[in-house]
Amino acid sequence: MSVINRDNYEEFIVDYYDGNLNSLYEEILMEFLDDNPELKREFKEFGEMMSTPEIITSSPIFLEKESLLRDNLYLENEESNFNELCIANIEGDLSENEKQLFEEMIEDDDAMSREFNYFSLTKVTADSSIIFTNKDKIHKKSQRQLTLYYSSMAAAASIVLFFGIRLFTSEPSITPNYIADNNKITTIVALDNNNNIKPIENKALELSVKKSIKSKTIDVAKETKSNKRTKLSGLVTKRIINKNSSSENLIKAESKKTEYSKEADVTPIKRVERRVKLIASKTSLKLQMNAIPKRLIIQKPTKSRINNNYNIKDEEYVPIRNFIANKVDKNIITPTKKGFRLVNIAKVIVVGVNAITGSEMSIEQKKDSNGKYVKTEFSSGLLAFSVPVNKKK
Amino acid sequence: MTVEEYNKSVKLYSDNVYRFILKNTKDADEAKDIVQDAYEKLWVKASDVEYSKVKSYLFTAAYHTMIDKIRKNKRLTSIEDFHSEIGTFSGQYSDLNSVLSEALGRLSEIQRSVILLRDYEGYSYGEIAKITDLSESQVKVYIYRGRLALKKYIGSIETLV
Questions:
Q1: Which of A121, A129, A136, A392 is best to mutate for the B interface (most B CBs within 10 A)?
Q2: Strands A237-241 and A251-255: what pairing?
Q3: Which residue in B has a C-alpha nearest to residue A144's C-alpha?
Q4: Residue A169: enclosing H or E segment and its boundaries?
Q5: DSSP annotation string for B27-43
Q6: Using CA of residue A163, residue A164, residue A165, residue A168, what is the dihedral sign?
Q7: Closest chain A residue to the Cα of B147, Cα to Cα
Q8: What whole-number distance in Å separates Cα of residue A203 and Cα of residue A184?
């Protein structure tokens, strides 16, 4: 295939007329044009066009060059130049030499001095009394501050949770101090040989009996706690003794609502039995095992409140621990739209506390006009505070 | 830029930006909004902005926000209100500052802004050009024309007094 063909001949024609083709390519081009007469005619027309020079007849010229020429740019006494000089002096755009010349120029001319003074007055100064008062709104908390904030919130929530659960799941224990301080035993009684109840008149004996009961009650309480759940635990009785009555119902017992007790009376009997044995060993009085236990047994035993499972069937007797566990499982642990949040735990605890104590504590999350949570508020009878919700970066 | 550097810039430059914007808008609430908006933009770009360039970044962001608001307000303003905003000398001036303040209010936004950036913050022509998105020569021309207008106003007041 030839170097020059119908697809690239025009380039070679232009190069030919520009004088960029060597003799070899010129010869090849002529041979190609001889083989293609119609292209040869085109080649000649192109040659005629390239040989005529372009005549520019409409180029604009600037006729006022003279007005732009200056002998000395700054020292001509014209108003516009003078204004520029004054402003340049104020802005610091003059060199030292030019500045000196300018000052010499206006020194002897009052009008120029006055004009320059007006220009000097155009320099504005900032009023330092104007300050931006919303700096706190644009301050951002550092990572350390954020970490501290979340840590303190987590610690506070943990403390509330801990004390909330502990408060309502702790078992009232029968300790010597508990019994003595709360006057659970108002009077120690004993039976005489005729099975008649009579108070212990000997104070010393009464005290020694009390002491012995105290010392042994601890053992009883400990042993009871370590037993299985079916045994009695947390039994608190309040024994009211009517000294004037001689009936068998002389000693009445009342149980508090918060007490646990098993329906079966076997364990209480054993427990009281130990006390009876102790008293008998320490005193010369005979104490009837059958009589005293009967009188010391709770007159109106409550139903069992300890369930082996956490199913809440009878709300009247639901232990607080079960109640809290059920609520936590329903509202927090079980996946919900709300998710696992500390504020939900706190709300559950507050509800539980209010139900038990009758207080009116509350935890609320406040929203702004756009429906976004801005702060969490806690209030009770004695204390109220709010914690803002920080926006994340 | 760290959080500490950001908070430091709040302490150092928020007053300056506020004064600049307030002098332009003459509306304290709007000026506060613009400043807060500028800092929010800085916070978003905190990882990209070097601390050494924080001041110019703040002024740039605040200036552009201000110009947008001014132009938006102008579009919403009726012709009658516009003429009334021009204002005339209605009483005696207590001091030069009030005269200057009045004179500045009569300048265009760009002339006023470049003069305030020059006098309040001492920015060079090049720095002002970056902030205002103009060329250096344009900045120089605006400053020269602005000072000339201020001088003429002051001179006319002096003449009246």
A1: A121
A2: antiparallel
A3: B3
A4: helix A143-169
A5: -HHHHHHHHHHHHHHHH
A6: positive
A7: A122
A8: 18
Residues 6+ apart with CB under 8 A from A215: A176
CA distance A99 to A83: 14
| Spatial separation of the C-alpha atoms in residues A299 and A172, rounded to whole Å | 20
Task: Return the structure tokens found at A263.
Answer: 């329906």
The answer on pLDDT for A290 being more than 60 is: no
Q: Which of residues 93-112 of B touch A (CB under 8 A)?
A: 96-97, 100, 103-104
| CB atoms inside a 10 Å sphere around CB A331 | 16
Radius of gyration of chain B (CA): 17
Would you give the DSSP letter of residue A334? S
- A54-74: average pLDDT: 52
Kindly give, in sequence order, each residue whose CB lies less than 8 Å from that of residue A305, ignoring residues fewer than 6 positions away.
A260, A261, A317, A318, A319
Sheet holding A373-379, edge to edge: A362-367, A373-379, A384-388
| CA distances to A80, A261, A310 from A318, in Å | 98, 13, 9
Kind plus residue range of the DSSP H or E element containing A255: strand A251-255
Q: Do B43 and A135 touch (CB under 8 A)?
A: no
What number of CA atoms fall less than 13 Å from residue A195's CA on the CB side? Answer: 10
Q: Map residue A342 onto helix, strand or coil.
A: helix
Q: Do β-strands A251-255 and A362-367 pair in parallel, antiparallel, or remain unpaired? A: unpaired
Say which of A123, A130, A134 has its CB closest to residue B22: A130
Judging contacts by C-beta atoms under 8 Å, the chain B residues touching residue A144 are: none
- Beta bridge mates, A198: A190
Distance CA B117, CA B62 (A): 12
CA-nearest residue to A134 within chain B is B32
Report how far residue B86's alpha carbon sits from residue B108's, in angstroms, rounded to the nearest whole number.
11
SS3 of A33, please? helix
**ipTM attached to this prediction:** 0.82
| Cα–Cα distance list, A112 to A61, A84, A86, A122 (Å) | 39, 13, 10, 16
Q: Which residues pair with A376 in a beta bridge?
A: A365, A387
- Among candidates B18, B43, B151 on the partner chain, residue whose Cβ is nearest the Cβ of A118: B151
Closest alpha carbon within chain A to B4: A142
Q: B159 near A115, Cβ under 8 Å?
A: no
Touching check for A135 and chain B: CB below 8 Å?
yes
B82 min Cα distance to partner chain A (Å): 25
Mean per-residue pLDDT, A141-146: 69
Min Cα distance B71 → chain A (Å) is 24
* Residue B103 pLDDT > 60: yes
Predicted local confidence at residue A240, as pLDDT: 41
Which residue type, as a one-letter code, is found at position B31? A
Query: Does residue A212 contact residue A278 with C-beta atoms inside 8 Å?
Result: yes
The Cα of B91 is separated from the nearest Cα of chain A by a number of Å equal to 20
Interface of A with B in 343-382 (CB under 8 A): none
Q: From CA A286, how far away is CA A297, in angstroms rounded? A: 19
Per-residue confidence at A198, pLDDT binned at 50, 70, 90? low
